[in-house]
Write a structure and sequence with these properties.
325 residues; alpha/beta; Rossmann fold; 2 domains; 11-stranded mixed beta sheet; disordered N terminus
């Protein structure tokens, strides 16, 4: 991966779209993903699900107050008769019924509609009737940054506020598994902090070093890790060389693990609003992938989020299909 270079704006737009276009193209080759869409009661949420269906990526089950779904469909001139609908009185019930569809084996993924993330995730992580696994649930942004050569995974910027070291281990492993599902051959994980040296006064540097040693001992698998690394050292080869950092990750990272949610949120939004990046959102660690979109997301970002979920679900199917040894 090359260092960050600012290309001509038209070239940047082309490169950005190429990243998501490749995701969409890959998803179209896979079995259609059955998705329970929780509360698709506005035009953006319903329109994204329907368009992803028209591309052959997902088969949506629309769960929510039918009158509101019908109103959104009418505004978009969508014929709902070709979709399965499940009536729910309100957004909380929509989240619960969507999760129940997954538990019953009738859906292979969840998609957030026009409800709060907390409402959907509360139903997902509920101890009784939820979709918990032994793995910590975490969020990843798959970011298309115009000036970066490949998709950039940023985690966790939406679910875990101040994760412990044990929780960060799961966050890292979830991101690595996502990278493999996206068919990234060489996964290079940068554990970010404010500096590239271990400082006892900066806890995130100590945790970064511990995570790297966990990878050395096989507690984290499937990638090469390095940290602590400052952001510039993680993504820019020139910056890494100036600091004399010799590492297979420095300057070439394709996964960025942030110290906490605040840092991740600032990083993701900085890339979105200052570097014209798009950010497809996915939640991992539950029994199925969860498509997490924002009201501010573009059409292409919403479609890319569906494509990411399809690739993750396919990777999970392949893993389940492997013979026991």
């Amino acid at each position: 991966m090359a260092s960050v270079v600012s290309p001509h704006p038209a070239a940047a737009e082309s490169r950005e779209h190429d990243k998501y276009d490749r995701l969409l193209a890959a998803a179209k080759t896979l079995p259609v993903l059955r998705v329970a869409v929780a509360h698709p009661c506005d035009e953006a949420a319903l329109g994204a699900a329907v368009e992803a269906s028209s591309l052959g990526i997902i088969d949506p089950i629309l769960v929510g107050p039918l009158k509101k779904i019908e109103a959104a469909a009418s505004a978009l001139k969508i014929d709902l008769s070709r979709f399965r609908t499940v009536d729910a009185a309100h957004s909380h019930e929509a989240a619960e019924k969507a999760v129940a569809l997954v538990k019953a084996g009738e859906a292979e993924a969840l998609m957030k509609g026009s409800l709060h993330t907390d409402e959907l995730m509360a139903a997902v992580v509920r101890r009784e009737g939820g979709l918990r696994t032994a793995r910590r649930v975490s969020h990843c942004f798959v970011m298309a940054v115009p000036s970066y050569d490949s998709p950039l995974i940023v985690t966790d910027a939406a679910v875990n506020i101040a994760p412990t070291l044990a929780e960060k281990r799961d966050i890292v492993q979830n991101a690595i598994d996502l990278a493999h599902a996206l068919r990234i051959e060489n996964v290079r994980v940068a554990i970010l902090s404010a500096m590239e040296t271990v400082n006892p006064n900066v806890p995130s540097t100590i945790e970064a070093a511990a995570l790297c040693k966990m990878a050395d001992r096989g507690q984290i698998t499937g990638a090469v890790l390095d940290g602590p690394l400052a952001l510039d050292n993680a993504i820019d080869l020139r910056a890494a060389k100036i600091k004399k950092i010799s590492s297979p990750v420095a300057g070439k990272a394709n996964v960025l693990v942030v110290p906490d949610l605040e840092a991740g949120n600032v990083l993701a939004k900085s890339l979105t609003f200052l570097a014209d990046a798009d950010a497809a959102g996915i939640v991992l660690g539950a029994r199925v992938p969860i498509i997490l979109t924002s009201r501010a997301d573009s059409r292409l970002t919403r479609l890319a989020s569906c494509a990411v979920a399809s690739l993750v679900a396919d990777a999970q199917r392949s893993k389940l299909a492997l013979p026991e040894v």
